Amino acid sequence: MTYAKIMATGSYLPPKILTNSELATMVDTSDEWITQRTGIQQRHIVEDDDVVSMGVKAAQQALQRANLEPQQIQMIIVATCTAPKTFPSAACLIQAALGIEFAPAFDIQAACSGFIYAMTCATKYIETNFVDNILVIGSEAMSKVVDWQDRSTCVLFGDGAGAIVLSKSASPGVISSKMFADGKNKDILYLNNALMSSDKLLRMEGRTVFKLAVKRLADVIQHELKDNNLTAADIDWVVPHQANLRILDSTARAINLDANKIIVTVDKHANTSGASIPLALDAGVSDGRIQRGQNLIFEAFGGGLTWGSALVRY
Description:
Blueprint: E1 3-12, E2 16-19, H1 20-23, H2 31-38, E3 42-45, H3 51-66, E4 75-79, H4 90-98, E5 105-108, H5 114-127, E6 133-141, H6 151-154, E7 159-169, E8 174-181, E9 189-191, E10 202-204, H7 206-227, E11 237-240, H8 245-254, H9 266-269, H10 276-286, E12 295-302, E13 306-313
Parallel strand pairs: 4-5, 4-6, 11-12
Antiparallel strand pairs: 1-7, 2-3, 6-7, 8-13, 9-10, 12-13
Helix pairs in contact: 3-4, 7-8
């Protein structure tokens, strides 16, 4: 049987850091207010970078660690909702920057769930022997779309990119994944098209999103475990979308998961939407917590509404 396995990870964070204290000089908030409600202490903000340049840097690191040349990549999928252009896609621009010729390249826009959607698509291309090596990238410049006068949202988001090299393998890698969407809740978390609306900024009903996120994430993880005859005790690490520390903690309690098994980067990165899972994954791999052969759960919830999970043997 052919499997899709994560061969290497990479990440990039723009050098500018915006702390809670600095943010409090821009909007009516405080370090204490942000930390208590979200767990966020700082976020990285783009200056000279954008989704494409960040994605390129994360991809280059992943390629180097995988010992692959760019031309060995046969497809690029980018999860983003903040690409600099509607078209060409960020994936096409990253392809050109990496010097990869003719490999299919496209973006997936599923907000904070985008990386799970992208990795699931990539997995199917590999399992069906369409290609051998795929770059899956999550890259976001959320600072470009938040309302910096709205303290309920601007404190939550940051910028960055993460990447994985997903390759054909004889041993299990991405074991299973689940994806869901519910367009009925379109008005509680959205970002208007800049060409179609004068309001070009992200809008969110935080309390409603919080309640739905905890319920949907707990349900999808429990189903992922049940379908694979596993329990929470069989999972070595949960690598979640980094929305809010309270959501991470509440989801862990709902499924009786040891909170110490959660890779947490929200304190340093804030919510980087589609980039948050690969950024957290790379953090866990780079510092040695995540080891080969361990069982990982990825999970995410975002605008759409969209949500999903993946069971991965690293």
